[in-house]
């Protein structure tokens, strides 16, 4: 597991095999076997085997995702 400098992680479970880029924000989420890019924001997600690009926003997902840089996805209802 690798967590970049300046990350904010609140009420979350991280691991195993997760890499998080610098200054990412993870809130109320569960991540495993995933790579999260720098400056990304994840809220209320459960992700596995996922690749999230830099500066992405993901909210309300419970699945495997592969998304690029500068992407915003809101799957909450």
What is the domain tally?
1
What is the strand content?
A: over 45%
Order of helices and strands: EEEEEEEEEEEEEE
Q: Kindly state the percentage of residues in helix.
A: under 10%
Strand order of the largest sheet: 1-4-7-10-13
* Oligomeric organization of the protein chains: single chain
CATH class: Mainly Beta
Q: Give average pLDDT, whole number.
A: 91
Give the number of helices: 0
Uncertain stretches: none
Can you say what the CATH homologous superfamily is?
A: Hexapeptide repeat proteins
Radius of gyration: 11 Å
Give the strand tally: 14
The CATH architecture classification is 3 Solenoid
Q: Main beta sheet: strand number and arrangement?
A: 5 strands, parallel
CATH topology: UDP N-Acetylglucosamine Acyltransferase, domain 1
What this model shows, in words?
- This protein has 77 residues and is mostly beta strands.
- The protein has one domain: Hexapeptide repeat proteins (UDP N-Acetylglucosamine Acyltransferase, domain 1, 3 Solenoid), CATH 2.160.10.10.
- 0% of the residues lie in helices and 48% in strands.
- A 5-stranded parallel β-sheet has the order 1-4-7-10-13, with no helix packed on it. Strands 2-5-8-11-14 form a 5-stranded parallel β-sheet, with no helix packed on it. A 4-stranded parallel β-sheet has the order 3-6-9-12, with no helix packed on it.
- It is globular and about 30 Å long.
């Amino acid at each position: 597991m690798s967590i970049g400098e300046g990350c904010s992680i609140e009420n979350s479970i991280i691991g195993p095999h997760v890499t998080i880029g610098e200054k990412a924000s993870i809130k109320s989420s569960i991540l495993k076997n995933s790579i999260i890019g720098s400056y990304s924001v994840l809220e209320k997600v459960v992700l596995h085997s996922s690749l999230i690009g830099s500066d992405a926003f993901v909210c309300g997902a419970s699945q495997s995702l592969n998304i690029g840089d500068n992407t915003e996805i809101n799957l909450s209802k």
